[in-house]
Amino acid sequence: MERSIKMTDFKKKILEGIPNNLPKPKRYDLRINHAPKRKCLLSKDEVVLAIKNALRYFPAKMHKELIKEFHQELKDYGKIYMYRFRPDYKIKARNIDDFPHQSKQAACIQLMLSNNLDYAVAQHPHELITYGGNGSVFQNWAQYLLCMQYLATMSDEQTLVLYSGHPMGLFPSHPNAPRVVITNGMMIPNYSKPEDLERFNSLGVTQYGQMTAGSFMYIGPQGIVHGTTITLLNAARKIDENAIDLNGKIFVSSGLGGMSGAQAKAGVIAKGISVIAEINPLVIKKRHEQGWVNEVYDNLDLLISRVLEVKIRKEPISIAYKGNIIDLLEKFIKEGVSVDIGSDQTSLHNPYLGGYYPVGFSYKDSNEMIKENPEKFKKEVQRSLVRHVEAIDRLCQNGMYFFDYGNAFLLESSRAKANILDENGDFKYPSYVQDIMGPMCFDYGFGPFRWVCSSNDPKDLQKTDEIACDVLKNIAKDCPEEIELQIRDNINWIQEAGKNNMVVGSQARILYADAEGRIKIAKAFNNAIKDKIISGPIILGRDHHDVSGTDSPYRETANIYDGSQFTADMAIHNVIGDSFRGATWVSIHNGGGVGWGEVINGGFGLVLDGSYESEKKLESMLFWDVNNGIARRSWAGNPGAKFSIKRSMLENKKLTVTISNDVNDDLLKQVSE
């Protein structure tokens, strides 16, 4: 593990950037959860180009030694990570004053990207992957070193430009411009197929930034815990009109690595019984040690017995099955145990490189197959998806409610020729956005608003929890009944957040809020900083999985039915609009959630420092960041969004939005007939 290193040395190392002298090679640490090794699919000429692209980060005196090393990495891992240049200091969130900086805003960004690579947070930290199997912060360690150096030396009159992890440089700008502008995976459309990603990523010219990985806004699995909690609460209410929460109900899914790690914890917070399959033993160990999983079983008989026991007592519990989800589902079927709610959160946007593991093979054997026989691995994954869907069908026939949790399960199952389509050629199971998140949250402007304390002090986080709770309680006093349940759920969430031990990595919090809630909470934070109640700046952000940030027909925009769910105007407009309304940094990505070529998504970071300027920025940017998406959803004809955008126009007279007119369906029958 990293050696202890003095703070002054830490700052010197960051300011050094790429070292003048070659550091010693790093051993491949088997104690760390590594990304699967993949077969290099580049041609001979492309191998030469990939090595040339990697060497250009370093002075010529280093090339003779590095050329062999990089060639070997390409053979062994399918891409060049530059392991030798991984720093010796521990990468983690710190108080911003611990980072060398000329700009407080840039120091905040150093905190955020460091959190994304913290061992306790990142899925594959040595490969610079935060979550989702391939959600990358940078492509290689040279990019990390350069980026940190630029952030440490830049001023508030410069903007750092990042091309898919590559720091293109510092460009003159002005204090109200973003300090960093990030793009990830932005390809010419004809070169945005899944196989293109592997080729161009191996060449070192693009990366899959997922959502909050490549935008430096990941806050550990807490970020998805809240969204999953809200989803499960509303799923329980959907199947049982008398349900308040998930109490006494069994929720079964798969995946505990990265964002999927939230499932077990969220089920318990929703007062249910979570049973989650995971094949990677290191992932299970991490979640168990963090307390996000209560019990672990590799024996299905013992597991079923335990599930039946806690169901009788209606005891909230999270159980991990160390094995394949298909074996788990088929055991429930064999034993005649009814499952109430089912889903899947494997990384199926990346199905053939470790995002999904086939049944009948060990984790070790599967990873060897990925590298040595990728075609066989692909066939086994497809066979498993067919069998997976068959098990879901049988459980649903016995009363289970299944939803796709935005991980491309339905999409990849259809590509595997599983029986996943209805007679009209549509998916026979809904996306959670279609059934739950879209009509209940996004259409009303509610989405994952988050903040991070730049002091890295738990006391500051506790103060922000109290402030946010007070704001929501005041809003609840006279809120419309259409959003009353959402407000209540989020008050309950924030009141219990500290007790639920949510923090992994940075001192961060998340809740679902609309534009009114986000703006009022942010203003209250800004005032608290000004009054020295909070000791340092607060960094605002959100998941890209939000009202306006993402165009994704199989997830975020799945409940839009006017045909525009396949367009990406909303996400592009959102990032442009955020950039000139005060965002500290902005990002726009190809890929995230359901996969490369299937989604365009963007995000922002906004640093509050207690100033009047911060207040003006937050008012303008947060209002736009939410209402852009509501306006689009309203134009598509979504009733909740129409209600919300009309309410926003009443609140802000400068807002004028085109409202769609309803069309009589009986009149349209004349055309179809």
Q: How would you characterize this protein structure?
A:
This protein has 673 residues and is of the alpha/beta class. It has three domains: 7-131 and 138-203, no CATH class; 222-430, Urocanase like domains (Rossmann fold), CATH 3.40.50.10730; 444-665, Urocanase superfamily (Urocanase fold, 3-Layer(aba) Sandwich), CATH 3.40.1770.10. It has 23 helices and 17 strands. It has helices at residues 7-16, 44-55, 63-77, 104-116, 141-153, 194-203, 222-239, 262-269, 281-290, 300-313, 325-335, 351-355, 363-372, 374-397, 409-415, 432-440, 458-476, 484-496, 515-530, 569-580, 612-635, 639-651, 665-672; strands at residues 129-131, 135-136, 158-163, 166-172, 180-184, 250-254, 273-278, 295-297, 317-322, 341-342, 401-402, 447-453, 508-513, 538-542, 550-551, 585-590, 600-608. Strands 3, 4, 5, 12, 13, 14, 15, 16 and 17 form a nine-stranded mixed sheet that branches. A six-stranded parallel sheet has the order 8-9-7-6-10-11, with helices on both faces. Strand 8, helix 10 and strand 9 (317-322) form a beta-alpha-beta unit. The longest helix is centred in the middle third of the chain and has 24 residues, at 374-397.
CATH topology of the largest domain: Urocanase fold
Count of alpha and pi helical runs: 23
Radius of gyration: 24 Å
Overall geometric form: globular
Question: N- to C-terminal separation?
Answer: 70 Å
The CATH architecture designation of the largest domain is 3-Layer(aba) Sandwich
CATH top level of the largest domain is Alpha Beta
Largest sheet properties: 9 strands, mixed
Q: Whole-number average pLDDT?
A: 94
Number of separate structural domains: 3
Number of strands: 17
The low-pLDDT segments are: none
Oligomeric category? single chain
Summarize the amount of helix as a percent range: 40-55%
